[in-house]
Design goal:
Radius of gyration: 66 Å
Structural class: mainly alpha
Helix content: over 70%
Number of helices: 29
Strand order of the largest sheet: 1-2
Distance between the termini: 209 Å
Shape: rod-shaped
């Protein structure tokens, strides 16, 4: 029996499944089988569960049977409990069936509702997608309408922005394929249309900005000119303040500073350019537009650099240079505001091309110019161009170097202009003292050039010691200095005072001094005219200090710096030499005139028998001539020059008197002739002494006199009139009384000195032993002179 039981158990064990084990475990653990039963009914498979339960029941019955054998009583109780479980299971099965039936009834209605709901959801989804698609279409079409509107209004950036929104945000996932295709075809055409229109507007701007460049340049150069004028006015006020301060006077001035914002004044519209560049950037054509802009502007520049052949450069240079200035002011603004449209290298390339071309043109034009005025006019505008463009960072030194290279030519032309003016003035000068009728003329012609002889204002009309050529030449020299400074100002060299001084020396030496000397040596001039020229030269020499100070003032150099010993003009020394040469020319004329008078000595009776107390007529003429000469000289010549003229004339007269005794025409003379000459000499000595005192020379030359200039003639007359002429051979007496006489001359003259017996001396010789002793002494002198010679 046990073997059967074991066989049956093995069979059961062999028939167990995983579900049986789970079910057995749940029952063994006393767990609730409700979820398992509910799951079986929900799955619609309660039968397997029932089968499992039955199988499990059988298994348990076997176990119970085994257990009952071991524990009978317990088995009986377990069987009872099992039967109770069976009853409960049946009840549960019945409940499950009823619940399942009710659930099926309720579920069928719900399934119908669910199907209706799912269908509604599907419709809703389709409608939502349709609405979404419609909205997308509406938005795209609205953008298309806006795009067309912007295009019609010329608002290309807004149109391009609308196209960009369509292209980036809608077109890729656009639901309507036909519309998508139409839009895809339209977008390139719209972009091409925008590019064409924007390029057309940009080309119009190119034409406009080129035509406006001249006005822009002229305005900017006008600002530079105004700024320069303000600077010059400020320096002039400062110079006056310094001069008054040095003079110990109080002077207050106020600088009115008015800053000009040039960017606000130079108004030109770059909006079309910026719009075009931005739109091309949006179109992805940024590099293409940069290249287009650069090439077109380069073509415009090439055209602007060509000088017009129909107009002289002197007439067109301002327009030409203003066009260039305007062009590069525009380019500077484009470089600073366009955000990369132009590169610094491109602007530098254009500027270098311009500089090279302008330098060539200026070199050629300066060579052709024949007047200093034209050169200065062009130079001024070039420096204003340089000052204007330097503010925008352009290197203008190569252009200014052209001015530096033409500096010598300008000054040669200016020098030649001044030469013609000075020659005209000096040649037409009457060499008469200038008459100043009113104070304003005195200020302009005398005080303006420091030519005044006194600090006291004279009475009018005032007769100046110089002729009108002096202030007229000073005006020309002053204008020359101004011309030199004007050309050298605002160039490469800021300190050009030494250059101005060099050119000033050239004018004074090579032109003024040369022309004056030519006038001095003119054979048509008389003594008074040469004297006036000599006086004029001395005043021109005096004006050199003014010229130097004026040059320093214009050059911005402190006036005290020109007072240094080595800072003067070479021309001053040259003019001083020329003044001395004029004095020599004057003395030559004076001596020539005096020789005409002294030639009348040939009419003297050198062997007169009677003593004549009257003077010779020639000496009266000489004194009158000298009186006129020295009176004129006292008015216009400085004292040293007056002394030279007077002493030179008197020395020549003295030499002429001695020469008269030496003349071959005088074979012999007697004491009466000597007495007559002595009377003439006394008259001349008296005049010389009076004029030396009246002219004020005695206060300057305390150790000299005009009378001393007649010493040779006086010593000769004294010797011939001496009672002991042989004393001439005594060295001590000769050195004291006859030091101006020459042995040979004295020997020749003494040989001519004869007192014949039939002369008055001869008739009185027996009664006058003194005359006899003098004759013996004279004979002794003659003998000793012969032995000495």
């Amino acid at each position: 029996m046990d073997s059967k039981i074991h066989k049956r158990r093995a069979t059961i064990d062999n028939g167990e499944t995983g579900e049986d084990l789970v079910l057995a475990t749940l029952i063994g653990n006393g767990d609730d089988l409700g979820p398992l039963v509910r799951h079986a009914f929900e799955m619609g498979r309660p039968e397997p569960l029932v089968q499992q339960l039955k199988h499990l029941m059988k298994k348990k019955e076997v176990e119970i049977e085994d257990l009952c054998k071991t524990h009978y009583e317990e088995f009986i109780r377990a069987v009872d409990e099992l039967r109770g479980v069976l009853v409960d299971a049946e009840e549960l099965k019945s409940d499950l069936s009823s619940d399942n039936f009710r659930l099926q009834e309720v579920g069928s209605a719900l399934l119908l509702k669910l199907e209706e709901l799912l269908e509604s959801y599907s419709i809703k989804k389709s409608v939502t997608e349709a609405i979404k698609m419609s909205r997308i279409c509406i938005q795209v079409l609205e953008l298309c309408v806006k795009c067309n509107k912007h295009l019609s209004q010329g608002q290309f950036y807004l149109a391009l922005k609308a196209v960009d929104l369509v292209e980036k945000n809608y077109l890729q996932n656009f639901p309507v394929n036909k519309i998508k295709i139409v839009i895809e075809k339209a977008i390139p055409m719209i972009k091409a249309h925008i590019e064409k229109k924007v390029t057309s507007h940009f080309n119009e701007w190119l034409v406009h900005i080129r035509s406006s460049a001249k006005d822009i340049g002229q305005t900017a150069i006008g600002h530079a000119s105004s700024a320069r004028q303000r600077d010059e006015e400020m320096r002039e006020r400062q110079r006056k303040a310094e001069e008054m301060s040095m003079a110990g006077m109080d002077f207050v001035y106020q600088l009115d500073v008015d800053e000009v914002a040039e960017d606000s004044v130079l108004k030109f519209d770059l909006t079309p350019l910026h719009r075009s560049y931005h739109i091309h950037t949006c179109l992805g054509l940024q590099e293409q537009f940069r290249d287009y802009y650069y090439k077109n502007r380069l073509l415009q520049l090439t055209s602007d650099l060509q000088i017009p052949s129909s107009q002289p450069f002197i007439e067109s240079h301002q327009t030409y240079l203003a066009q260039i200035a305007g062009y590069f002011i525009v380019e500077d603004r484009v470089l600073r505001t366009s955000g990369g449209l132009l590169s610094v290298e491109q602007v530098e390339t254009m500027w270098e091309t311009t500089v090279a071309k302008v330098v060539l043109i200026l070199d050629a034009q300066f060579v052709q110019m024949g007047t200093a005025t034209h050169l200065l006019l062009v130079k001024d505008y070039i420096t204003l161009l340089g000052a204007t463009l330097r503010q925008y960072g352009y290197e203008v030194s190569p252009i200014l170097e052209v001015l530096d290279k033409s500096r010598d030519k300008y000054h040669d032309l200016l020098l030649e202009d001044c030469r013609q003016e000075i020659e005209n003035i000096i040649c037409n000068d009457s060499c008469d003292q200038m008459i100043v009728k009113k104070e304003s003329d005195y200020d302009n012609n005398v005080l303006a050039f420091d030519l005044e002889t006194s600090d006291i204002m004279p009475a009018f009309p005032y007769i100046a010691p110089f002729s009108s050529m002096v202030p007229d030449c000073c005006f020309i020299v002053r204008s020359f200095i101004k011309g030199c400074v004007d050309y050298l100002s605002y160039g490469l060299n800021s300190n050009f005072y030494d250059i101005v001084r060099k050119y000033l020396d050239n004018l004074l030496i090579d032109v003024l001094n040369e022309v004056v000397l030519n006038k001095v040596h003119s054979p048509a001039l008389g003594e008074s005219q040469v004297m006036q020229l000599a006086a004029n030269i001395s005043y021109l020499e005096r004006a050199c200090n003014f010229f130097l100070q004026y040059a320093a003032q214009l050059c911005g150099i402190p006036v005290r710096s020109v007072d240094r010993p080595r800072a003067g003009l070479t021309a001053k020394a040259i003019l001083k030499t020329s003044r001395d040469e004029a004095y020599l020319a004057l003395l030559t004329l004076v001596n020539s005139k005096l020789e005409e008078f002294m030639a009348l000595t040939e009419n003297i009776n050198w062997t007169m028998e009677e003593i004549v107390q009257d003077r010779n007529d020639y000496m009266t003429e000489v004194v009158f001539y000298l009186e006129t000469l020295l009176s004129k000289g006292q008015q216009i010549l400085p004292l040293d020059a007056l002394y030279k003229v007077g002493s030179g004339a008197l020395e020549h007269i003295s030499s002429s008197i001695v020469a008269a005794f030496l003349s071959d025409s005088v074979k012999r003379f007697n004491a009466n002739a000597v007495m007559l000459i002595n009377n003439d000499l006394k008259m001349l000595e008296k005049f010389a002494d009076e004029r030396f005192q009246s002219t004020g020379l005695s206060e300057v030359y305390r150790d000299g006199s005009f009378q001393g200039c007649l010493v040779e003639a006086r010593q000769l007359i004294n010797l011939l009139s001496s009672s002991q002429p042989e004393n001439f051979m005594n060295p001590v007496i000769r050195q004291k009384n006859y030091n101006a006489l020459d042995h040979k001359k004295v020997s020749i003259i003494c040989d001519k000195f004869k007192d014949s017996a039939d002369s008055i001396f001869g008739s009185l010789s027996n009664r006058n032993t003194k005359i006899s002793s003098r004759k013996k002494s004279m004979d002794m002198l003659k003998k000793r002179l012969k032995d000495f010679n």
